[in-house]
């Protein structure tokens, strides 16, 4: 996962907040974000806290969490105590909310989002977009009903496993993921350029200034010329931004290419742009989930999700995505209550009832 291995400070900062809330003894994460955004706990104050922890033989978090018990100046005590209270609030929210809602709560209440939003430079816009992509991934993770656990802890475990896999030394063929800037001077037999949408490539900021737009047009040319044999261009019909699904318009850069050099695998841009302006939902052309049959079921006209607290073995149900099925088994309690359901068209699936949209038929 590039969020972990790249030099994306804003991603590492948000993940550090999450890690600290999940594991207060993560000293590396604690030191990273105790004064970011700035909250009056500078290096000198942190050094005093660290020395105190070492002298007492305690984890740094224990000193932070009980800062009133140590002989530190009042200003520092107040700032550290406020920080510790914030982290403990994050722990509660993470325990009660799904991964996306919990991460959004942390991003907002840590003031990370506000701090990034204050930076109107190109670099600041990029940082905001990076945070947005992480939140988009969290949203997709949360809405995946095939997963048993939608918690933030489960998400962190998954990206940790993916990062470990990425770091393994292997001679097998692999996809190289990089930015256009990072690709300068390199060539590959096959190149895929993704995210070719207005307000993304070109970016929203570039559309506001002619010089910036020309610079992104030059970048697009750089990307095109990295391909030795075949070049694939793709864009999303819809995309999550800050948790909301929006309709996307194909990049003007595609339209500027001579049609004789393009082999369209989808409907032409003009037709698609008209459809998007009419806000018609369309099926993605380029995205395919990993070895998983996507539900195409349309719920009944009178479908209305019901409370699942009375759900029991043997009941017939209708699911908003998987259609009709029979409950085979119920397990777990409260927020962890799950149902094993045998669906007519999709076979047996285990669903977390807290997020499931079901109608009980009998």
**Helix and strand pattern:** HHHHHHHHHHHEHEEEHHEEEEE
Number of distinct helices: 14
CATH class descriptor name of the largest domain:
Mainly Alpha
CATH topology of the largest domain: PCRA, domain 4
Number of strands: 9
Biggest sheet strand line-up:
8-7-6-5-9
Q: What is the average per-residue confidence, as pLDDT, rounded to a whole number?
A: 83
Given the helix and strand composition, which structural class is it? alpha+beta
Q: How many structural domains in the coordinates?
A: 3
Name the CATH superfamily classification of the largest domain: PCRA, domain 4
Poorly predicted ranges (pLDDT <50, ≥5 residues)? 1-6, 163-168, 278-296
Which word captures the global form?
flat
Rounded to the nearest angstrom, the radius of gyration is 25 Å
Helix content estimate? 40-55%
Strand content: 5-15%
Corresponding CATH architecture of the largest domain = Orthogonal Bundle
Distance separating the two termini: 45 Å
Q: What kind of oligomer do you see?
A: single chain
The profile of the biggest β sheet is: 5 strands, antiparallel
Key terms:
362 residues, alpha+beta, PCRA, domain 4, Rossmann fold, SH3 type barrels, five-stranded antiparallel beta sheet, two-stranded parallel sheet, 9 strands, disordered N terminus
């Amino acid at each position: 996962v590039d969020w972990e291995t790249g030099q994306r400070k804003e991603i590492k900062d948000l993940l550090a907040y999450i890690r600290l809330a999940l594991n207060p003894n993560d000293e590396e994460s604690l030191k990273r974000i105790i004064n970011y955004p700035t909250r009056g706990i500078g290096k000198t104050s942190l050094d005093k806290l660290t020395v105190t922890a070492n002298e007492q033989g305690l984890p740094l978090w224990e000193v932070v969490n009980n800062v009133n018990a140590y002989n530190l100046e009042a200003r520092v005590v107040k700032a550290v105590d406020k920080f510790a209270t914030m982290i403990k609030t994050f722990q509660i929210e993470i325990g009660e909310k799904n991964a996306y809602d919990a991460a959004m709560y942390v991003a907002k209440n840590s003031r990370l989002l506000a701090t990034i939003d204050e930076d109107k430079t190109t670099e600041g816009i990029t940082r905001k977009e990076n945070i947005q992509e992480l939140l988009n991934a969290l949203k997709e993770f949360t809405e995946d009903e095939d997963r048993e656990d939608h918690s933030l802890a489960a998400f962190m475990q998954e990206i940790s496993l993916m990062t470990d896999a990425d770091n393994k030394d292997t001679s097998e063929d692999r996809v190289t993921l990089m930015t256009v800037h990072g690709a300068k001077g390199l060539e590959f037999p096959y190149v895929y350029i993704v995210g070719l949408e207005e307000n993304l490539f070109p970016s929203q900021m570039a559309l506001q200034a002619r010089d910036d737009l020309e610079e992104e047009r030059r970048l697009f040319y750089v990307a095109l010329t990295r391909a030795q044999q075949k070049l694939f261009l793709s864009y999303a019909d819809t995309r999550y931004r800050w948790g909301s699904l929006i309709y996307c318009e194909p990049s003007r850069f595609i339209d500027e290419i001579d049609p004789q050099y393009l082999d369209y695998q989808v409907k032409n841009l003009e037709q698609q742009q008209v459809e998007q302006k009419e806000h018609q939902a369309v099926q993605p052309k380029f995205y395919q989930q990993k070895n998983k049959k996507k539900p195409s079921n349309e719920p009944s006209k009178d479908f209305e999700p019901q409370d699942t607290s009375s759900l029991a073995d043997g009941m017939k149900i209708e699911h908003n995505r998987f259609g009709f099925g029979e409950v085979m088994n119920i397990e777990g309690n409260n927020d962890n209550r799950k149902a094993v359901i045998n669906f007519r068209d999709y076979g047996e699936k285990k669903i977390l009832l807290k997020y499931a949209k079901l109608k009980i038929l009998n």
